[in-house]
Design a protein that fits this description.
heterotrimer; A mainly alpha; B alpha+beta; C mainly beta; A: Amino acid/polyamine transporter I; about 0% strand; C: SH3 type barrels; 6-stranded mixed β-sheet; 7 strands
Chain lengths: ~400, ~120, ~90
């Protein structure tokens, strides 16, 4: 029975790992640099595994989610700055995700974009309102598994496997180093987006994990995100095999879905679009909840889907308001794919404020008792902290210098 | 049995839990009585947007204004224990906490499925 | 009645002007009654502790005993000459 539960969680994590930021950056990086950035995905995936295991453990043992720790460790003033920046970036990401869902629904149904934004919003709201936390994760996680069609597509496209293998070895590019760096930063930012850890840590409390679930936490983090990283490889390989050197920039989600249609025909296209709808729709809910968790946790309100809608009124109103704001912003006609690029880059800047408190609390014996970080967790944690600070400092300059990857 | 407590590190900014483990605010500031030459002790916990005024300068005053500026004073005698969070002896309503949630709840309950 | 926040940031110095650093925290003893302030934590070392980087048992002296405080005025906390950190 326990194995079954673990398997369920992992499946949900795989489908839940890929959001619109991963889709856009992985395929674009493939279209621009072929397989050369595959190693960066590995770096990003290990990073999110290390930190989600850590914050899952912190939440499980101490009952504190990330934003509780942010306020306690960074103090009120810095914590408030972290909150405001997190909310702004969250809203951008949410808008991009909802727009992405609407685009794919349009490709699937042919209905007008504006109607689909409203329909998507209503469906998301109804699902969140009526469904328990673990079932929300399962629905979108399993649906997101349709994205595995990209793995099949990647193989069927017969990429030069030697070049693919070479891409896993870290190397410096021979040309366009700035653009290469921009994509590297974007890939890392997309893999380690702050809302993912906010959501994962609060999710541990939603699922009411206790110390006996720490093994589940580890498995979820490692296998779930690990296999999710495997999906990212597939996306980059497809992008490289199909679009590199053809001058095709996957600016449209439709182009990304083409990556599955070319080798696999109509069924490939259908699975890709359905997979994107579920993965990105699930990510929209994760982002939505993240925004509500952060505000509630910073202010000390009762929070969580596990408290029922009327059991945490201010939390409930917060996610409803955020959803409406996101829908409104999508209605303005902003391009979701372009917005995603900015959302990922700006989230990258916020990374240190998110990850530093996690590392600090994970080492605090008074909260963690015998579950404090071991040497491995600390070595990896510190290594990634350095990576994150570099990413945060270089993200915006690279965005400007490469003109958002257009160069 | 006494233990040492660094007020800023271990008490301020902690989550408040009431007697039923309901989250009902944070420790935003502390009220102290006494002065030079005599005992200085913590007499109450202060919780609410009004307490932010002094904590973050201009931004704090703005945030306090948006939040409504209320401060709830919880006498120290109401504290059951201090650990990862601060546990209180009474229910939130009895102490004047969690009012925001109580005010919104009737509206939420009008929507079908609110108990889910 | 004073607030905890009103202590933070005030410079702690002796009557003759020797500075210890700004107040970063208040250290209190917690028994069965109200917490009683024992010392004022000063300076940058106190700040590192706040972030949780240094564990309290391993700290070097960084606190001024409360009983050494003579008066609180303006934005300073004045202590007796001859006070040492503990």
């Amino acid at each position: 029975m326990k194995i079954f539960q673990i398997a369920l969680g992992i499946l949900a994590a795989i489908g839940g790992f890929v959001d619109i930021g991963d889709l856009v950056f992985n395929v674009s990086a493939g279209a621009t640099f072929g397989y050369q950035l595959l190693w960066v995905i590995v770096v990003g995936v290990v990073g999110i595994i290390v930190y989600s295991e850590m914050c899952g453990r912190v939440a499980t043992v101490s009952g504190k989610a990330v934003f509780d720790a942010v306020r306690e460790r960074l103090g009120f003033r810095t914590g408030l700055a972290a909150l405001v920046s997190a909310q702004v970036v969250n809203l951008m990401t949410l808008t991009a995700e909802i727009g992405g869902v609407a685009i794919c629904l349009q490709l699937l149904s042919g209905l007008p974009y504006r109607w689909l934004i409203v329909i998507a919003g209503i469906v998301l709201a109804v699902i969140v309102w009526t469904t328990s936390f673990d079932w929300i994760e399962r629905i979108f996680g399993y649906g997101g598994l349709c994205l595995l069609v990209f793995a099949v597509a990647a193989v069927k496209l017969h990429p030069a496997w030697g070049a693919v293998g070479h891409g896993f070895v870290p190397h410096v590019p021979t040309q366009s180093p700035l653009l290469y760096a921009y994509f590297a930063i974007g890939l890392l930012g997309a893999a380690m987006t702050p809302y993912e850890v906010y959501f994962y840590s609060s999710g541990a409390i939603e699922e009411q994990w206790g110390p006996k679930d720490l093994g589940l936490n580890k498995a979820n983090a490692m296998i779930g995100y690990g296999l999710g990283g495997f999906l990212s490889f597939a996306l980059m390989i497809v992008g490289g095999a199909l679009f590199l050197g053809k001058g095709i920039e996957p600016e449209f989600l439709g182009s990304i879905a083409l990556g599955a249609e070319v080798p696999l025909g109509q069924i490939g296209l259908l699975l890709a679009l359905v997979g994107i709808v579920f993965a990105v729709g699930g990510a929209a809910i994760d982002t939505l909840f993240s925004g509500a968790y952060n505000l509630a946790q910073f202010l000390g309100w009762e929070w969580g889907r596990y408290r029922s809608n009327s059991g945490a009124p201010r939390f409930t109103v917060t996610w409803l308001v955020l959803l409406v704001l996101g829908l409104g912003l999508v209605m303005t006609g902003v391009d979701p794919v372009q917005l995603t690029e900015y959302a990922v880059i700006f989230s990258a800047v916020a990374l240190p404020l998110t990850y530093i408190p996690i590392l600090l609390v994970a080492n605090d014996r008074s909260y963690m008792r015998e579950y404090v970080n071991g040497r491995l967790a600390n070595v990896l944690g510190l290594f990634y902290l350095v990576v994150i600070v570099i990413v945060a400092l270089t993200a915006v300059p690279l965005l400007i210098l490469t003109n958002a990857g257009q160069n | 049995m006494t233990k040492t407590l660094d007020l800023g590190l271990q008490l301020v900014d902690r989550q408040l839990l009431d007697s039923e483990d309901r989250r009902c605010g944070n420790v935003d500031d502390l009220a102290l009585e006494g002065g030079p030459g005599e005992r200085l002790e913590v007499v109450a916990i202060l919780s609410g947007p009004g307490a932010w005024r002094r904590r973050a300068g201009l931004i704090g005053r703005f945030a306090a204004w948006i939040g409504g500026g209320r401060v709830v004073r919880i006498p120290w005698e109401e504290v059951a224990n201090v650990s990862a969070h601060v546990k209180l002896r009474k229910r939130a309503e009895e102490l004047g906490l969690g009012r925001g949630d109580d005010r919104l709840r009737p509206f939420i309950q009008k929507i079908p499925g609110a108990e889910r | 009645m004073r607030t905890f926040s009103s202590f933070l940031g005030r410079m702690v110095e002796t009557e003759s002007g020797r500075r210890f650093g700004a107040c970063r925290d208040l250290r209190a003893s917690l028994g069965h009654g109200r917490p009683e302030v024992q010392a004022i934590v000063v300076g940058r070392l106190g700040w590192l502790e706040h972030l949780g980087i240094r564990r309290p048992s391993a700290r070097p002296p960084n606190a001024v005993p409360w009983e050494a405080v003579v008066r609180i005025e303006g934005d300073r906390i004045v202590v007796r000459d001859g006070t040492e950190l503990e």
